Amino acid sequence: MGNRGFQQGSFNSFRSSSSDEDLMDIPGTAMDFSMRDDVPPLDGEIEEEKSYNGGGIGSSNRMMDFLEEPIPGVGTYDDFNTIDWVREKSRDRDRHREITNKSKESTWALIHSVSDAFSGWLLMLLIGLLSGSLAGLIDISAHWMTDLKEGICTEGFWFNHEHCCWNSEHVTFEDRDKCPEWNSWSQLLISTDEGAFAYIVNYFMYVLWALLFAFLAVSLVKVFAPYACGSGIPEIKTILSGFIIRGYLGKWTLIIKTITLVLAVSSGLSLGKEGPLVHVACCCGNILCHCFNKYRKNEAKRREVLSAAAAAGVSVAFGAPIGGVLFSLEEVSYYFPLKTLWRSFFAALVAAFTLRSINPFGNSRLVLFYVEFHTPWHLFELVPFILLGIFGGLWGALFIRTNIAWCRKRKTTQLGKYPVIEVLVVTAITAILAFPNEYTRMSTSELISELFNDCGLLDSSKLCDYENRFNTSKGGELPDRPAGVGVYSAMWQLALTLILKIVITIFTFGMKIPSGLFIPSMAVGAIAGRLLGVGMEQLAYYHHDWAIFNSWCSQGADCITPGLYAMVGAAACLGGVTRMTVSLVVIMFELTGGLEYIVPLMAAAMTSKWVADALGREGIYDAHIRLNGYPFLEAKEEFAHKTLAMDVMKPRRNDPLLTVLTQDSMTVEDVETIISETTYSGFPVVVSRESQRLVGFVLRRDLIISIENARKKQDGVVSTSIIYFTEHSPPMPPYTPPTLKLRNILDLSPFTVTDLTPMEIVVDIFRKLGLRQCLVTHNGRLLGIITKKDVLKHIAQMANQDPDSILFN
Fold first, then answer.
1. Distance between CA 525 and CA 531 in Å, rounded?
2. How many CA atoms lie within 13 A of 532 on its CB side?
3. Residue 92: how many CB atoms within 10 A of its CB?
4. Residue 486 phi, psi (nearest 5)
């Protein structure tokens, strides 16, 4: 390749084809695992030896080790590439060591050292403040826009239904949701709220507003930020494992996700805002990282911040700071050192405090469905709690299979080309079916709050319409009572709601709008739990003399709490879908504020996980990672097959030879030709093609940037200039073009295994060190390469899955 051609092509001409994730099935591929910063440059490397350069004119001036000064772009990563964890950690250690050494030299350097140490905590403070503020804004806006579908406040259109009636002087306790200041759309348009026509007007306006909100949401996502769709948790898990998706955590994604999340929740679709709030918090963390050099220039350090931001996201989503930290540790984080644990806790604390200060629901709580129970549970109740766990596991496995099948159909058929139409059709169906039923018409968070509620004397809900036949009352607690007409009516409506939620959620999750799964899953479990709880309550009331009840449930006592069953059912279904255990129990505990219900929650969560795992090993987020072909190496799965590194490495027998560079015999033209004719993200460097003795590994991106930089800074570099990676220049005849020394971009310690290394060890190495690739040798001679994608494909092949599905889409 000529000099001129390469200059015209420039770095951008290779960028689109240099993704290491696209090369995995090509012999000689590499995923840029480089540990060059683990080996500090020797003093001799930056000195030039005149005697070896052919004795020509000004030989020392004709050589160039132009990497004495850092070159912008060297050591960075392309989009859809995996970071080098070891190199990034080594860089941070070098940076910290340099700051520590300089701090002893002057007061200013000491102040800089202290500010560097404090910057992490300051960043956590900013993430917590911004995440909590955005969560409060989303909660308030979604509450107002949800009520907008049913009517408007004449005193001020910015008031939601509840706030509108708070200061009204014409509200009775029984009809506290009705006040003259709040007008339904039929009252505004036809001046009456009675009759069939008024019902049709309200119905039409409800569907119209839902369609408008959904259309705005999907249009904004499609036009401005395609990455703002979905829950974001599968992608965040992949990013935290080291994968780079440029723009996924950018400012446009944050702005559009915040706006469209409000619109999507307000449309009445069967989705939640809790999962997307994790994405919003991680966007805040990523953007704020750019204010601090320590995190802006180091991808591994940035991922520590994103882990803490994920904890802050769950903290504001559920009002559960401790649960948020455990969620980040258990569910999303790939690398979670102790320091990140402390900072996650601090970020979650600040976020929860900020949201509490905003008080979006006006109840001094962080979530709409906070509840407190006071009745203790009995040992026999573990049986229905375990039944709820079984239901949650079955629902989770069913949902994952059907949702993944539908999403695969969306990706592989014409359906995926019409996201706006799909969203509008699902919204229309949801709104039309939801309006006639008050439990589907209300927001899902309000429904969960209603189901969790422990009925009191002053409750006017149909779920609390019991016949009041008091014989005794212990400590002010209401005894179990026979169900009234309202309870039976509510049971039928809840049964229909359960069917609708189960079916419609399958088609809603995965559409091109922000959509969380926590709230719909909790709603399904809460409905099932409330139905079972009311059934158990009535059974205990009418048959308190049965052997299973008479020892602990006497007539007139408060034995069964249906709201507790709803809470346990919610935990079971959420656990069945996500496979969370510890963090789930802590989140539910923080929602209720009751330590005594930890055992029922643990029993239901573990049962649902066991049942769901028996029917399918993957949670919903892992299933979507696999569906999208993200290069995510699951740390929880064991590799138990007896294969060797030689069985997986590339090239295989009869494949073309591995593409390599030699240490001191290739010209600039030779290297440029290899770069232009291949898509590999890196190249092994050997002593010679004959010996194949390994010297190191060099990244494609670093090669391109370094050669371009040399051409700009040194006039004598031409296509016939020799590139060498050794410490000293090779002997050259007189009057040859100047040589180009690229030793400083060479990784002198690439990770290697022998050809007989068991794959279970190789897989463990990839998981625990976050490798991008390792080289395979035999007696010091280079044989091949194993990349992360090769490992993933091999695991899929061993599990009888399609190995070609491991391709980022």
1. 10
2. 24
3. 18
4. -60, -40
- Tens digit of pLDDT for each residue in 109-124? 889 888 888 998 999 9
Could you say which DSSP state residue 173 is in? S
Beta carbons of 334 and 635 less than 8 angstroms apart: yes
Residue 142: pLDDT over 60: yes
For residue 718, give Cα distances in angstroms to 6, 51, 68, 570. Answer: 11, 22, 20, 69
Long-range contacts of 437-441 (CB under 8 A, 24+ apart): 437/493, 437/496, 437/497, 437/500, 438/493, 439/490, 439/493, 439/494, 439/497, 440/496, 440/497, 440/500, 440/501, 441/150, 441/206, 441/268
Q: How is residue 717 written in tokens?
A: 């570099």
Number of Cβ atoms within 10 Å of the Cβ of 809? 8
Quote the tokens at residue 339: 């320091």
CB atoms inside a 10 Å sphere around CB 192:
12
Higher pLDDT, 653 or 329: 329
The owner of tokens 């036809």 is 190
Block residue for tokens 């950690």:
89
Residues 461-476 have a mean pLDDT of 62
Contact 523, 444 (CB under 8 A): yes
Grouping H, G, I as helix, E, B as strand and the rest as coil, residue 180 is coil
pLDDT for 8-17, tens place per residue?
343 344 333 4
Query: C-alpha angle with apex 23: 21 to 28, nearest 5 degrees?
Result: 130
State the Cα–Cα distance between residues 206 and 436, nearest whole angstrom.
11
Exposure string of 418-452, with b = 16+ CB inside 10 Å and e = fewer, is ebeebbbebbeebbebbbeeebbbbbbbebbbbbb
Q: In terms of C-beta density within 10 A (0-12 exposed, 13-18 middle, 19 or more buried), how is residue 262 classed?
A: buried
Structure tokens at 385: 């709690």
Gap between the Cα atoms of 696 and 679, Å rounded: 19
Tokens of 117: 């140490």
759's CB contacts (< 8 A; 6+ apart) are: 639, 641, 643, 644, 645, 647, 648, 791, 794
Quickly tell me which residue has 């602990």 as its tokens: 552
Asked whether the predicted pLDDT for residue 372 surpasses 90, the reply is: no
For the cut 60, the answer to whether the pLDDT of residue 21 exceeds it is: no
**For residues 782 and 480, what is the distance between their CA atoms, to the nearest angstrom?**
77
Which residue segments constitute the domains of the chain, with CATH numbers given?
129-358 (1.10.3080.10), 379-467+478-628 (1.10.3080.10), 645-799 (3.10.580.20)
Per-residue pLDDT at 478: 62
pLDDT of residue 539 exceeding 80 = yes
Tokens 């980040």 sit at which residue? 328
Residue 69 has a pLDDT of: 57
Q: Any long-range contacts for 583-589 (C-beta under 8 Å, 24+ apart)?
A: 583/314, 583/323, 583/326, 583/327, 583/329, 583/330, 583/331, 584/323, 586/320, 586/322, 586/323, 586/326, 587/314, 587/318, 587/320, 587/323, 587/324, 587/327, 589/323
Please give the pLDDT value at position 655.
Answer: 81
- List residues bridging with 183 in a β-sheet: 152
Res 38 pLDDT > 50: no
Q: What does the mean pLDDT of the chain come to?
A: 82
Q: Give Cβ neighbours of residue 113 (< 8 Å, ≥ 6 apart).
A: 99, 100, 102, 103
